[in-house]
Q: What sequence folds into this?
């Protein structure tokens, strides 16, 4: 017993000495620590480390609700060495930096629709594409008819900022021609004449937009990516719709929005109790243009997809303990794996394979 006490006394003494040294040399230790962090993270780019194929990175799985664990809607898709981003929710650009996905390498951004939570992070995406990539042309932003108005509006809001940066850093570092974005609108076929349009077909990658039902939001689309025998579908915001089932046929991975009415009801009741009737009304309204986890699972089963991932999580789920309540009975409707999406997840679909590998990037 006496020996144990001596050992504990020595250890306590050593701990005090270490603490005193850290306090005395806090500036030096802090600088050294930051140097290590900078060395590990500056210029980080995971794309060359990934095998050829499709890779889906969840850069934002949240919604308009405040959620400290989730940025606004954003899904990055890597096809070979090409980086695309679907939707630009608030905080998502920062997440991509944490994940080692360099926005300077982003080839294009695609918007599913123009609700604020899907576009409110567009400014940082355009700025980082320009500054990190020393871009000489604006960021292409694809979307259904109307996208040019959204992009032009952001460009107008940032025009003074762009001028400051060129003036401060010079044209060589921040070429003025690369600032902002360029809206690249596409039109869906007229009603009754089809629900899809090919947005890009180049170097083995095909991106197809398909009509979804997010009424009264119109137009609204989802996207399918096909590359090297692998396929990924991103639903956008929608109610259950046959066009999504048709577009997702046989896909390896379906990233689908989900709203759990039973949990939204909890918020509705709380708003009513606290005399916040306007927000209680909103809780009832949002049920009419989203998809429940159970409905999304049924759509996945009908489309014969391999795996289902939920994003645009409503309501917020700050703890994983609540996931079963959110998923509800979805597993009864879909025979494949189901994942509640979290920011930082990466799903890898190697070329000409059936494997789907999941890991975390942050």
A:
């Amino acid at each position: 017993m006496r020996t144990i006490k001596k050992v504990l006394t020595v250890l306590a003494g050593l701990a005090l000495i270490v603490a005193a040294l850290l306090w005395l040399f806090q500036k030096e230790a802090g600088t050294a620590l930051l140097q290590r962090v900078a060395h590990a993270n500056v210029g980080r780019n995971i794309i060359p480390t990934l095998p050829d194929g499709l890779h889906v990175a969840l850069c934002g799985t949240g919604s308009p609700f405040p959620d400290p664990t989730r940025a606004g809607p954003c899904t990055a898709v890597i096809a070979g060495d090409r980086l695309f981003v679907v939707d630009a929710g608030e905080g998502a650009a920062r997440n991509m930096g944490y994940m080692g996905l360099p926005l300077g390498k982003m080839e294009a951004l695609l918007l599913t629709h123009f609700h604020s939570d899907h576009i409110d992070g567009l400014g940082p995406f355009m700025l980082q594409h320009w500054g990190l990539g020393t871009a000489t042309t604006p960021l292409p932003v694809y979307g259904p008819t109307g996208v040019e108005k959204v992009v032009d509006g952001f460009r107008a809001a940032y025009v003074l900022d762009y001028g400051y940066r060129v003036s401060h850093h010079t044209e060589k570092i921040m070429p003025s021609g690369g600032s902002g974005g360029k809206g690249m609108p596409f039109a869906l076929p007229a009603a009754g004449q089809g629900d899809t349009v090919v947005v890009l077909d180049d170097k083995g990658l095909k991106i197809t937009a398909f009509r979804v039902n997010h009424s009264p939001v119109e137009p609204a689309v989802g996207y399918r990516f096909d590359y090297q025998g692998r396929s990924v579908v991103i639903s956008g915001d929608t109610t259950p719709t046959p066009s999504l089932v048709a577009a997702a046929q046989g896909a390896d991975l379906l990233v689908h929005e989900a709203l759990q009415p039973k949990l939204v009801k909890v918020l509705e009741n709380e708003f009513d109790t606290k005399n916040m009737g306007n927000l209680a009304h909103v809780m009832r309204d949002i049920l009419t243009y989203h998809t429940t986890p159970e409905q999304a699972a049924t759509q996945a089963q009908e489309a014969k997809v391999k795996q289902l991932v939920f994003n645009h999580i409503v309501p917020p789920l700050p703890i994983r303990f609540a996931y079963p309540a959110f998923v509800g009975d979805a597993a009864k409707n879909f025979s494949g794996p189901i994942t509640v999406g979290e920011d930082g997840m990466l799903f890898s679909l190697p070329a000409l394979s059936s494997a789907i590998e999941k890991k975390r990037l942050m």
Q: What stands out?
A: The chain has a mean pLDDT of 94.
